[in-house]
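Before the break, one more example. Copy the sequence into your notebook; we will annotate it together after we see the structure.
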Amino acid sequence: MYKPITLKDIALALDLSPSTVSRALRDSYEISKKTKKIVNDYAAGVNYQSNPMAAGLRSKKSKSIGIVVPDLANSFFSQAISGIESIADKEGYHTIISQTKDSYHKEIEVVNHMANRSVDGLIITMSSNTTEYTHLQQMHKSGLPIVFFDRIVDEIDTYKVICNNFESSYKAILQLIENGKKDIAFLATAPQLSISKERMNGYRAALMDQHILWRDELIKFCPSGGSDHSETEFAMKQLMALDQRPDAVFVAGDRLSMSCLRALKKLQIDSDELSIIGFSNVDLIDLLETPISHIRQRAFEMGQISMTMLLKIIEAKYPITDFDTKTIDADIFWAEHLGLDS
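Here is what the structure looks like once it is written out:
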């Protein structure tokens, strides 16, 4: 039976102490370059593989982090996870990824499961059904490093990474108005989410600055975030049944944008009747049958920054008390039929 090479085996072969071999392999400043070379050359020759579990026990770290998102099929979240893993892999961390399907109860279950698996930290974006944060506040208070991205929680003081939701929404509405649109509807996910609030604030500010009063009947929320297509279709039917119908719709959610297009196709409403701009990170959006302008978040970058922030907490020698929120710009791409520049 194959027996893996251990630190003790290397130490015995080289007539060194196991602690010296360990420090040499970790590139410790305490060990000379000559000894490091001897140890590393021998370790490579015998195909020595470090034991991450044993290393974790020595350092009291599991070298794993938890990632919690609402939906892995959502392009934005999958791109953000790729960004997180690009940093985690480089720094020797493994990732445990779970989706909540926008369920509050599933979110509690997932977070508790990860904490019980002794993850070193957690990167999370909130479920659309979460309105109470005790489960995360307790984890944070117990010392579990947490970083929020995209859908954040103001009540917990830690690092956060968000898109510039207000500014990108403001710019999108302003350009629609400059292109002659006046009755612009607002379609969003759950109203309590930070992204819904920030994007609505941008929508309203642009209308007000152009002396256009927003109409409550043009504002619709779809708490399922587009996963329930009948919910989106019902909202669009209500909008299109108004005496003063909208001439444009601003969709403040990634999956909701695709659900909105699906509803419009079913209702046989084309782009000549209604201009659409929505948040979307779908890579093939330019190939869609219905032209759609879209706001693309820099998801990969947001993921990288989230992981970098989490490592800062995990590896800090002293508790961090001064946290900040990093805001990342988004890019706006206009459908050709609107004749607008990106």
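The chain has three domains: 7-50, 60-163+299-329, 165-296+331-338. The radius of gyration is 25 Å. Try to locate both features in your own notes.
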